[in-house]
Design goal:
By secondary structure, the protein is α/β, with parallel strands linked by helices. It has a single domain (about 5-219), classed as TIM Barrel, CATH 3.20.20. Helices cover about 45% and strands about 15% of the residues. Strand 6 (about 115), helix 6 and strand 7 (about 130-135) form a beta-alpha-beta unit. Helix 4 runs parallel beside helix 5 and helix 9 (about 170-175) runs parallel beside helix 11 (about 200-219). The chain starts with 6 loop residues before the first helix and ends with a helix.
């Protein structure tokens, strides 16, 4: 079975090291936000489907900031997955592991990383061809120590993990040093309060700091 997440795109995730996780409430914030992140060296993002603006924000970013690899997160249903794919999302991410959504992603040829928290979740993901999965919620589950234990029975499959949930600049380094980790999800880079006040300079500074962290831990 071919990987559910396109291998060349997975390589881009690994090369990026960090994926900015974003909640965009107003479409007109999308392009300056993407430009601020790109200016800071962060060129991969996950737009959470938690606001009505998310898909229109994605379309605006694809049109105006083509260098940004923009995916969609919080995909909970097959209809949401289809909408994200049709809007031009580079990939999709979910907090959980819904077999129906996984089947829809395979049918549509859409790169998708489900969320896993248990061995049973990983078994479902593997059955559907997943090799890249979201580890969520990473910090409340027990962080890198828990991930290592969870991943041990599946080591021969060479799965890669994208930890999200509770990471901070102080804790991110441990994940970046872990060979199991493809990249980290960073919601601290552009939190909602900075987007609301349009503090693009501070977001660029945080993006630069995130990239320095990746470079320091992986080079």
């Amino acid at each position: 079975m071919s990987p559910l997440f396109e291998p060349s795109l997975e390589n881009k995730v690994v090369a990026a090291g960090v994926v900015a996780v974003l909640i965009v409430e107003k479409v007109h914030d999308a392009v300056p936000l993407a430009r601020a992140l790109s200016k800071g060296g962060v060129n991969m993002m996950e737009l959470a489907l938690r606001t009505p603006a998310a898909l229109d924000a994605l379309r605006a970013i694809r049109r105006e900031v083509p260098e940004m690899v923009a995916g969609v997160g919080t995909i909970l249903t097959c209809d949401q997955l289809t909408a994200a794919s049709e809007a031009g999302a580079a990939f999709g991410v979910a907090p959980g592991c819904n077999p129906r959504v996984l089947e829809a992603a395979r049918d549509q040829g859409f790169s998708f990383a489900p969320g896993v928290a248990t061995a049973s979740d990983i078994e479902v993901a593997v059955e559907h061809g997943c090799r890249l999965v979201k580890f969520f919620p990473a910090e409340p589950l027990g962080g890198v120590r828990y991930l290592r234990v969870l991943a041990t029975p599946f080591a021969h499959l060479r799965l890669r993990y994208l930890p999200l949930g509770g990471l901070t600049p102080a804790t991110a380094g441990a994940y970046l040093r872990e060979p199991l980790v493809a990249a980290i999800g960073g919601s601290w880079i552009a939190p909602s309060e900075l987007i609301r006040v349009k503090d693009w300079k501070k977001i660029t500074a945080r993006a630069k700091a995130a990239q320095r962290l990746v470079s320091a831990q992986r080079n």
